[in-house]
Design a protein that fits this description.
Length: 330
């Protein structure tokens, strides 16, 4: 199992080989009691993974035995957690809960090492920078997004301002990232920009070094999620894309122009999450219809002939609007 997962992660094995995964049954003694909100592999190998839940716990799992190696208990419901994909000098897990404080749990010591204070309401999403191992972004129901350097005593580096400082501090929306709850965060693959989504039906692109709102217009991005919205970005494409759950579909936008490219249709109920796998250039989506779909870009697209009665295929090098579910490809 582990050998296959390692080969799959490295891009050495065909995704269609993976027909069945191990799972913990409901009567397993270590299973979560309520909804599982986040699952993440340990970034450096597949021998360990983490899960967090509305049951107020973060669990660290041994992949070989499917037993818990450690459990972190919290006073509030857990909405989100994240481990840094690039950290070599720390093993911190950032955790967002129904409380306004961001918790940092140390896998080495097995305890919560410290707390980041500054938000006023629940923390709906957390994400470490893929570029700098000590930089963390957090999103809250208080309409704010904060960037932190976890080494600093004061912690907070920047509070993102949708108006770029051009409105008076007396204005209610000053120093807010959205005009509603901010329930999703995602860095671009190079870590130079940060995407956020909010219940104001907007998505914004920020310069992650100075906190500037780039003012890219994505139009209306429907978002009625009452908890964290897990969206993702591409890596290694000729144009970089962002994939956002949108009801039972997934909206695809070009990151830097804001253009909506297509809507991916295949699920029958609401899509809760999606993640991009760069080695195979694949997108995976999970839905309340109890299905996980793998989406792959088609190399060729149909082009009508001059007489409009026949079609031919032409190479689609940008893969701009030819995404399809691998289930449809047989």
């Amino acid at each position: 199992m582990l050998g296959f997962l390692s080969a799959r992660q490295a891009g050495l094995d065909d995704p269609l080989r993976f027909r069945r995964a191990e799972s913990t049954r409901r009567n397993h003694p270590d299973v979560h009691k309520y909804s599982v909100e986040t699952v993440q592999w340990y970034p450096h190998d597949t021998g360990m993974f983490t899960s967090s839940s509305f049951d107020k716990t973060l669990k660290v799992w041994d992949t070989n035995t499917l037993q818990t190696a450690d459990v972190f208990n919290f006073e509030e419901t857990v909405y989100s957690h994240h481990m840094s994909p690039v950290a070599t000098k720390h093993c911190l897990v950032a955790v967002g809960t129904r409380g306004p404080k961001v918790q940092l749990c140390d896998l080495k010591s097995g305890s919560c090492s410290h707390i980041l204070q500054g938000h006023r309401q629940e923390i709906l999403s957390v994400s470490w920078s893929p570029r700098y191992e000590y930089i963390l972004a957090t999103a809250s129901a208080d309409s704010r997004v904060k960037l932190w350097d976890v080494r600093r005593a004061s912690g907070c580096l920047i509070t993102l301002d949708q108006h770029n400082g051009k409105k008076s501090q007396a204005v209610e929306s000053a120093n807010t990232a959205h005009n509603g709850k901010v329930n999703g965060l995602c860095f671009t693959s190079d870590g130079l920009h940060l995407l956020t989504v909010g219940t104001d039906d907007r998505m914004r692109l920020w310069n992650s070094s100075n906190g500037e709102n780039t003012l890219v217009n994505y139009g209306k991005v429907c978002n009625d999620s009452r908890k964290g919205l897990k969206f993702t970005v591409s890596c290694g494409c000729s144009s970089e894309f962002v994939f956002v759950p949108y009801g039972s579909t997934i909206a695809v936008y070009t990151i830097y122009s804001g253009e909506q490219i297509t809507m991916l249709k295949g699920h029958y109920k609401s899509v809760d999450c999606c993640v991009f796998q760069s080695n195979f250039q694949e997108l995976y989506s999970g839905s309340r219809d109890c299905n996980i779909l793998a989406w792959v870009p088609s190399l060729y697209e149909a082009v009508p002939e001059d007489d409009e009665t026949t079609t031919k295929s032409q190479l689609n090098p940008a893969f701009e609007d030819a995404w399809s579910s691998s289930d449809e490809d047989g």
